[in-house]
Amino acid sequence: MNTKVVKPAARRTHRRHAPEFKAQVIEACLQPGVSVAGVALANGLNANYLRRWVREHREQAVGAEIEGAVTASSTTPMALVPVSVASPVVAEPSEIRIDIRRGQTTVQMAWPAERAESLGQWLKELLE
């Protein structure tokens, strides 16, 4: 009987980086005009890992800001502030202005706003 011996696959080792090192390269990536890929290459890192570190750093920073805002607002007692709201003043138009153009002829007219119904009837007759 011929038995073949199979060796287990070599385990990949996961590199661990000190938090101080991560913080330094992340800070370098956050500088204006700096290429994440360039920083990764200069420090012997995979650019995708470095991009993930930067993304996670930003997400943590935003989360901390939100948490700080929620904590600050929850410790401050809420108070109602009286507000007076004035109704908007809408000026009723005193007249309706119309420009009618037919070919080279233009007719401009002003009609009293309180007689808008009669204007509608007049326009209907004119345009029929």
Overall strand count: 2
Q: Give the neighbour order of strands across the main sheet.
A: 1-2
Shape: elongated
The number of distinct helices, counting runs of at least 4 residues, comes to: 4
Give the SSE order as H and E letters: HHHEEH
> What does the radius of gyration come to?
38 Å
Strand content: 5-15%
Largest sheet: 2 strands, antiparallel
Query: Which percent bin holds the helix content?
Result: 40-55%
Main structural class: alpha+beta
Low-confidence stretches: none
Q: Gap between N and C termini, in Å?
A: 107 Å
**If you average the pLDDT, what whole number results?**
81
Question: Can you describe this structure?
Answer:
The chain is built from 4 helices and 2 strands; from the N terminus they run H-H-H-E-E-H. With 128 residues, it is α+β, with helices and mostly antiparallel strands. Helix 1 packs across helix 3 and helix 2 (36-42) crosses helix 3 (47-75). A two-stranded antiparallel ribbon has the order 1-2. Among the domains are: 19-74; 95-127, no CATH class.
Short structural description:
This protein has a two-stranded antiparallel ribbon. With 128 residues, the protein is an alpha+beta fold.
Map the helices and strands.
Layout (H helix, E strand, L loop, with lengths): L18 H11 L6 H7 L4 H29 L19 E8 L2 E8 L3 H12 L1
Antiparallel strand pairs: 1-2
Helix pairs in contact: 1-3, 2-3
Provide key terms for this protein.
single chain; 128 residues; alpha+beta; two-stranded antiparallel ribbon; 2 strands; 12% strand; elongated
